[in-house]
Amino acid sequence: MKNSFKQNLNTEEKIIYLKTLFYATTNKFIDDNEHILAQAKELGVTLRDLRKIKKAQKPESISNELLQINDLKIRHYFIREMISFAIVDHEISDEEMCQIYKIGTAIGVKEGKINDFFLWAAAGIEWQIEGERLIEDCF
Fold it and tell me: What is the rounded average pLDDT of the residues 85-107?
């Protein structure tokens, strides 16, 4: 899937995407997260519209939102991004992992694929840490 897929999302799908990312963070306010602010800017969502997004309280709320998107490939991408945000934002708890699995399987993503997404995200963090170590080893 090309990175430009986000530009092809309609307005409602962009908001669902941002809600999904917001759910995966520990932030109480959506505009407190620099990564979400960057995504909103890339999507062309204004700060005013971004601030209208309320944080979902239950996994079912996000699942129901995601089921509004007919394209299963896009739903897969949203789950992958949700995992990426959850891991980068903080150390992910077992409960948070279970919630992501619950959301993913509820919207048609197979458990094995969710496992793959978690492994992908963990490998990315390991890659970043190794890159930092390589620089530190120079001095």
Answer: 87
Tell me if residue 57 falls in helix, strand or coil. coil
- Residue 85, burial from CB neighbour count under 10 angstroms (0-12, 13-18, 19+): buried
Q: Tell me the C-alpha distance between 26 and 53, whole Å.
A: 15
pLDDT tens per residue across span 99-122: 999 999 999 999 999 999 999 998
In whole angstroms, what is the distance from residue 1 CA to residue 78 CA? 12
Q: Whole-angstrom Cα distance, residue 109 to residue 96?
A: 17
Q: What predicted TM-score, i.e. pTM, was given to this entire model?
A: 0.84
Render the burial of 26-37: b for 16+ CB within 10 Å, e for the rest.
ebeebeebeebb
